[in-house]
Amino acid sequence: MRSDMAPMSTKLLRRMIAGLGILVVDDNAHMRKITRMMLTNLGAKSVFEVADGVSALEAIRTFDPDVMVLDWDMPGLNGRDVMRIVRSPSVSPKPALPVIVLMAFPQRGCVSEAIRLGAHEFLSKPTSPKALHDRLLSIIAVPRPMVRLGDYYVPLPRDPIMRKTLLQRGRSAR
Questions:
Q1: What is the pTM of this model?
Q2: Hey, what domains does the chain have and what are their CATH numbers?
Q3: 32-84: pLDDT as tens digits
């Protein structure tokens, strides 16, 4: 767990995770099953799975998740496209939805793009239950406000210098 997280009891954190509605988006059925299993072992009670980006957008409207775990590399509407749509307040019902991006082959450019498009957290595939747990806790224990950056919403950067620069440019927190 990151050092900037406020201390919380294990019971409280488990209850918080149990209360989350989590959407898992991955074109690989095996990876969806593994991710679901890790989430349920962490205490999540409501996990919804879809296999593609179009289904993810529909599930956001109907399932109303609290967190999305999103595969970056999918055929058709990929993670990049889903992020662009989700972060667009003019078309998305949940532009501030916390997103954990999963990448099988994380390259610096792809990771930077995911962050620029508004990913809250990032994980490399295959991931571990501890890493997934830590990312979920980061989202629920230390939520970051969303800021409008052009046409998109993105989480306020953790880095104080980047945060100050962004806010000085006149971006309004949402």
A1: 0.86
A2: 10-146 (3.40.50.2300)
A3: 999 999 999 999 999 999 999 999 999 999 999 999 999 999 999 999 999 99
**C-alpha distances in Å from residue 38, one per residue of 19, 45, 87, 130:** 16, 11, 26, 9
Walk across the sheet containing 21-25 and list its strands: 46-50, 21-25, 67-71, 99-103, 121-124
The helix (H) or strand (E) run that includes residue 31 is helix 29-41
Q: Which two tokens stand for residue 155?
A: 């989480």
> Max alpha carbon distance in the chain (Å)?
45
**Is the bond preceding residue 126 a cis peptide, omega within 30 degrees?**
yes
Query: C-alpha 74: how far from its chain's center?
Result: 16
Within 42-107, residue ranges assigned H as helices are 53-63, 79-86
- With H, G, I as helix, E, B as strand and everything else as coil, classify residue 124: strand
